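anyone seen this seq b4? input:
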Amino acid sequence: MKNVTDSFVFSGHWPSAGSFGFNTDILATNLINLSVVLGVLIFFGKGVLSDLLDNRKQRILNTIRNSEELRGKAIEQLEKARARLKKVEMEADQFRVNGYSEIEREKMNLINSTYKTLEQLENYKNETIHFEQQKAINQVRQRVFQQALQGALGTLNSCLNNELHLRTINANIGMFGAMNEITD
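predicted toks r here
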């Protein structure tokens, strides 16, 4: 148990600290530092991240609505084409003797062009949704990274004053000197 407490309270390189000391074991303090940084990032970043995600969600929903409107227009065109088809079919009955094959060709061309238009609109809608999703993911990643970096820099700047910085440098120099003496 003494070894565990020694890793947290080691005052060999901190003579002015008295009975309280700082842990100079880099491996033991990295876990603590990482957990503190992650806690700060989660605490401060989750509100911003949720706002960004809500904004992206609204944009994606608007894009979907726009795509649905385009789809509705395409369906209206399809209904108009079907109405026109019915009209053509009635005319075909009247002119069957004169040009039955001509009317059939026009009917098939009309149906094919309408279906091609619908397929193109559906493909455009899917591509737009996929593009907007990728764009949203990239923006969220970039903003989270920026905020994490700003938070980490702010934490470091607020926690590291000149005296602590000099003490840390002196302690590390002392440790490296001791290591060099041992290896020599």
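Confidence is low (pLDDT under 50) at residues 1-15. The chain has one domain: 31-172. kinda curious what u guys think
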